[in-house]
Amino acid sequence: MKKQEYAIVDIETTGGNASHSRITEIAILIHDGEKVIERWETLINPEKEIPPAIFALTGITNEMVSDAPIFEMISDTVFEMLSNRIFVAHNVNFDYSFIRHELEKSGIKWTAKKLCTVRAARKIKPGLPSYSLGRLCKSLEIDLENRHRAGGDADATAILFSNLLAWDSEHEIDKMIQKTSQDQRLPPNLPREDFDQLPEKIGIYYFYNEQKKVVYVGKAINLKKRVSSHFSGHKITPQRQNFLRDIYAITFEVCGTELIALILECTEIKDLWPIHNKALKRFEPKYGLLEYEARNGYRYLAISKLAKNQNCIETFDAIYPGINLLRELAEKFEIDQRFCKYGSMSDGVFSLQNDTAILPEIESHNEQIQIALDSYLNSRPSFAIIDKGRNKEELSCIWIEKGHFYGMGYLPSDNPISDLSYVKDHITRYPSNQYIMQIINAFALKYPSKILFFQADSE
Q1: pLDDT-based confidence at 348, cuts 50/70/90?
Q2: Closest among 193, 214, 218, 195 to 205, alpha carbons compared
Q3: Which InterPro entries does UniProt cross-reference here (predicted)?
Q4: Fewer CB within 10 Å, N- or C-terminus of the chain?
Q5: How many other CB atoms sit within 10 Å of the CB of residue 275?
């Protein structure tokens, strides 16, 4: 019976993603499980300029590839060498995605079982300082010549692969090359244990880079299934490839409900500002209702653009709802319009210096401003959302105070909810924002049976 053969591959490219970059060099070594039995390499004309940064890394110039074959001319050779062999590479999904993409462009459909020597080395030789090819070879005393050229890196990967086969007493490589193996889909730098520990529960998850910084936060109904979905498919966009290369660790937090997970995801993205999160970053309120006392001693109300993290009485996505609210307050509480500021107007519609009308008495005016604000703040609802917890011993609680999200946490399920102070003792404070209140209010309308009203503190 013919031995299982492996195609050990390395490529050099014009950039980091298969959809916008091209291959400039390829090396393929055929390994029979004991030794290399065939070797082939060639430069490739990428039909586009090689960026200076790539030249600095590889030393491959535009002149060197100008007379080289384009990929379509060598596609049959590449396909023949890869067919019926296990595709082996260091960070396998990078090389695999480029070659699969180029073969498809040449009209050749190809798939293969894959083996990543980064992941194999992590399993068979755990605890090494780094698993990049250069540092790994240094740790394992493997000669690495002609670094960042396809032939040199492929030769070093072949030696590494031979050593891993010899050291593999637990048959980890056989397990990894099974077509259904989860390892083939995981990012190259992510320990399998981080994925295995994920529960099939509601919660949020964190992806970390090599520097242990959070680069992505996500929400999930099923943590294991949702995280796995990030790694499935064969998208070759630069965003996806950069994202997968950046994942070195995963942690998670189980939540009692999807609503709590949504709120926690939002607050964590606001707090951590992960580089790969895009969507929830745009939910920043643009305008706010502000109150301040000027040097003349009069208190003013204003609708103004907000600076980042600026405190205010109320927030708005657009200026006109804010203007409408301020106009309603001024009319209802008979506030002099000269003390209401709208948008970017420096002194509002009226100027105190040029207006000859008698100004209101300062103390009564300031008191009327306070009455208006107290009335508005106290008119907003205060309530708790009581729902299931993370287990049968607890209930989840989200507290909304005077129309703003106050915090959330978990209560013992066997104790009656007696008063507001009991609720507040069990919740953690979180900042509120308009997006959070939108999803809370939508939930409250849909599930009124889960709402519990309290008299809010008068602080």
Answers
A1: very low
A2: 218
A3: DnaQ, GIY-YIG_endonuc, GIY-YIG_endonuc_sf, GIY-YIG_UvrC_Cho, Ribonucl_H, RNaseH-like_sf, RNaseH_sf
A4: N
A5: 14
Report the length, in residues, of the chain: 459
At residue 449, the 3 state secondary structure works out as helix
Task: Tell me the CA distances in angstroms from 119 to 85, 89, 126, 158, 192, one per residue in order.
Answer: 19, 10, 10, 15, 9
**For 369-414, what is each residue's pLDDT tens digit?**
999 988 888 788 889 999 999 999 999 999 998 888 999 999 998 8
Classify residue 4 as exposed, middle or buried by CB count within 10 Å of its CB (0-12, 13-18, 19+).
middle
Written as one letter, the residue type at 260 is I
The structure's pTM equals 0.62
Residue 32, CA atoms < 13 Å, CB-side half-sphere:
8
Q: What is the signed CA dihedral for 309, 313, 319, 321, rounded to 10 degrees?
A: 140
Amino acid at 242: N
What residue type is 117 in one-letter code? Answer: T
Residues 438, 432: Cα–Cα separation, whole Å: 11
Rounded distance between C-alpha atoms, residue 245 and residue 238, angstroms: 11
CA dist list (Å): 276 to 188, 246, 335:
18, 9, 47
Mean pLDDT on 161-167 = 95
Quick check: 233 pLDDT over 70?
no
The string of DSSP codes covering 414-430 is TS----HHHHHHTEEE-
Q: What region does 73 belong to: left with phi over 0, alpha with psi -120 to 50, or beta?
A: alpha
Structure tokens of 222? 């099923």
Tokens at 295, concatenated:
């040097």
DSSP string across 220-282: ESSHHHHHHHHH-S----HHHHHHHHT--EEEEEE-SSHHHHHHHHHHHHHHH--TT--GGGG
Tokens of 89: 């590479």
3 state SS of 383 = strand
Phi, psi of 409 (to 5 degrees): 180, -155
What tens digit of pLDDT does each residue of 54-82 get?
A: 999 899 999 999 999 999 999 999 999 99
Q: What is the pLDDT of residues 83-93, one digit of tens each?
A: 999 999 998 98
Rounded Cα distance, 43 and 243, in Å: 29
Residues near 163 by Cβ (< 8 Å), separated by ≥ 6? 140, 142
pLDDT tens digits, 198-222: 999 999 999 999 999 999 999 999 9
**241-261 in b/e burial notation, b at 16+ Cβ within 10 A?**
bebbbbbbbbebeebbbbbbb
- The DSSP element (H or E) to which 160 belongs, if any, is helix 150-167
